Every structure is written in C-alpha cells, then in structure tokens.
C-alpha cells in the first residue's frame, strides 16, 4: 500500500498531478477528504471526456472492451489474456513489473507481428504539453512487462470537422503521432516515480516553499491545503506573482527570495509594470486622466453595453457546428440613449434549444440601434459576432456594422490608465468592478462563464426530457442575474471613469 488509504497503485492520473504538485499527491493518497471537491463544470467536462472516449472506440470496430468495473489486479489479468487475440483493446489495464504502478490505456492496437501502438484519446483539438507525461507513464509500465510499443499517438478531435447528420467517428478525430517526444520523456519516468513514492510514504504532508509554484495564484485549493504551511505563514502577503504581463521575470524574482511586488528591481520592469509597482508601493490607485479622457471621447451615444454567454461541447450537438465551437445562448444589453439618462435593460436567454443562434441574432438586431457605440469587455463578443456573420449571411450587414462600432472597456484598465493594488495585477471586470464600485459577484449562484455554460446545458437536457420545474425557473433567473451584472457593471465603470476624468 502506497499511502495511509487502501490505495495500492500509482496511476497515470497520480503521476500527472504529482508532477505538478507534491502536496496534492500526498493528500490524494493519505488524506483525500481534505482536497477541494470537484465543481459541476469540471464534472461535466469529465463526463464529456467519457463520451469522446466511447466515440473513439468506434474507429476500431473489431476492438474488445476490458471490463471497467474490475479491480486493478483483475483488469491487468484480463488484459494479458485478451492480448493473445491480437485485436484492439479498450481500457486495457496493466500493473508494472514492480507492482507499484497501474496504467489504463485508452486504446491499445496490435502493430506488426508482436508490437503494439498506444492511442490516448483527448477531448482537445490539438496535442497539449500535459499529454506527454500521461502517455510516457503508460509506455513505461508496458515496457517493464516486456511489451514492445512501436508507436504512441494522441487521438484528438479535429477542430475543422463540421457535423452533417450523424457523427462520423473516423472524420471527427485526428491521430497525431508523438513517439519521438515520448522516447525522451520515458527515460525520466523511473526517477519521477521513485520521487513520488517517497513523497507518498512520508509520515507528514510535505510543505510548499518558494521552489514550488504549483499553488499560485492563490485559490480555493490553496486556502484549503497550503495556507498554513510555514512558508506562507512567514510570508502572508506574497504578491510578486501578480506582476502584470509575462511571468518569467516575476517567477525568477520569487525564486530568488523577492516576495513583494514593491521590492522588485525596477530595472527589470517594463512601463506598465513600473506603474503597477508604484501603485503597490504607495498603496493607492494610479490614474492617468488624459488616457481616460481619450477613451471616453471615443464613445458615441446611444451607448450599448453588451455581454454574451456561450456554451461549447467537445462533440457538436447539431448540424453545422464544430467541436468546441462557442454557441451564444444569452446576451444582456444595457442601453443609455443620451448622456445623463438611466440605462434601459434588455436581455435574451435561449429557450434551451441546442442551437439558439438564430433567435439570438434576431433579438440582437431588434434591440441594437444602427448608430452608437457597442461597449464590450475584452474581445470575446467581437469574435462571436464575426462567427455569426459567417453563419447568417442575411444579417451580415447588421453584424458587420455592430462589429465596426465596438469599443473595448478593458482598454483603459489593460493600458493602466487606471490601476489599483486591490486588482492584484488583473484587469478583468471581476477584479476592477469591486474596486471602483460597490458591486461584486459575491452571493451570486452563477459567478463565472463556465458555471453559466453548465447551467444552460442543464436547460438543454431538461428541455430534451420535457421537464419544466422549479429548478428550470431558478436556472433562468440565475443566468439573467449573472449576465445582467456584467453589463450594469460596465455602465457603472464608465460612470466612474467620467468622475476620474474630471
């Protein structure tokens, strides 16, 4: 047994996570209850990954499934027995020769007379850096058993695939060989495994120090598992990693023992970072009134403050959609007709159809004037409007006009026309809004775009099953409250910038 729990084997998930954080690894084996619970959007993506994995199996129609409910030992025994048939195996399980590691291979395909190929199925549309240690661990386990692995592949989604009718498994996937990268990485596996086993076997949980960056930026996981470590108790106000822009300079300073942004060597900083450092040293906001006035003078009435919410799925749910394509299902619009007038609020929320885009565009066209600025926060809405323009040629003139009138409210904050130390290096609306106004997202049932996407997908499922209940009403109310907060928050931010400009 590797840890205090009855977990016996180090799996590929443990290996990948353990490479990122030694403390997480120890807790996973010795005190798993102390780790933060997975949130609903994360669980949804895990379930989506299972759907992608099942679809990938259809690319190999003669494959044999190793029963998933078997324990590790029986799974490994069943796999070795089935390998004699020289057919593709799904969810093949292996225990390494040393009896400490367990690897489950998504798809194991016979290659030549005695060799095999590993196919690791991923929901992404490209090969990611984190995929390499995952596959390396698998190959290492199999090689210790004398199994010859000829090729290693990431089987990921084809981002250019467009659904037309039933999903075509062979066309929706791309198989990218990563064998050269794996050969180099496999050599590192034995030493890393031994280091991880040593960590798991410690009587007490290892503490995080300045050589470990896995806990930054601070988040719920940090608060629950790391904040009482001696290093953080001794340095409660570590903020150097909140440095704006490229993080390499901040990481190097942190590892050299500089923990406060105000203590960094100014010679290492660019123009924006120097402004940020000055604000942190003085403990007050930096305000560049000329830049603020320049931005405000570009706005033309009527002002349209707009925010979109979207959802995406790995496997497209309807014809004409691509894997992970962002599907807009909601917008909030606060419209100020003339200077000094109160904003008018207009909103659209899809009924729960998988493809709400036609009604989305229709409602947008009905409520956005043909003149005046369209104010967004960041460039996401511009991207969605461009996508819609290519999908709906009859509305292209309206959409093109809207795109041409976009003003990005992020600009004065990203450009450091305004910066307050409480923003912690971020220019996001969730960082800026509480600083300049009395508004925040505390207490909201939905507090992020990911949560909004998850909520709408629940509406899709309920509509498909014909369910109209109190939860449906609550989901719709929560979505409208969240999206409306973004656009009303933008109204407030422009009002505050006007006060600062004076």
Task: Give a written overview of the molecule.
The chain is an alpha/beta fold and 502 residues long. It contains 20 helices and 14 strands. The chain has helices at 12-20, 22-30, 40-57, 72-82, 131-144, 169-172, 179-186, 189-201, 220-225, 230-234, 248-255, 271-282, 289-297, 357-367, 380-391, 396-404, 411-414, 429-436, 449-464, 470-501, and strands at 10-11, 64-65, 89-95, 101-111, 115-121, 149-157, 173-177, 286-287, 303-311, 327-336, 344-349, 374-376, 406-408, 418-419. The strands form three sheets. Strands 1, 2, 3, 4, 5, 6 and 7 form a seven-stranded mixed β-sheet that branches. A five-stranded mixed β-sheet has the order 11-10-9-12-13, with helices on both faces. α5 links the parallel β5 (115-121) and β6. α1 packs across α5 and α18 (429-436) crosses α20.
Segments where pLDDT lies below 50 for 5+ residues? none
What is the CATH C-level name of the largest domain?
Answer: Alpha Beta
By secondary-structure content and strand pairing, the structural class works out as alpha/beta
Q: Which term fits the overall shape?
A: globular
Distance, first to last CA: 68 Å
Over the alpha carbons, how many angstroms does the gyration radius reach? 26 Å
Described by strand count, sense and barrel closure, the largest sheet is: 7 strands, mixed
Please give the CATH architecture of the largest domain.
Answer: 2-Layer Sandwich
What is the average per-residue confidence, as pLDDT, rounded to a whole number?
Answer: 92
- β-strand percent reads 15-25%
| Total count of helical runs of at least 4 residues | 20
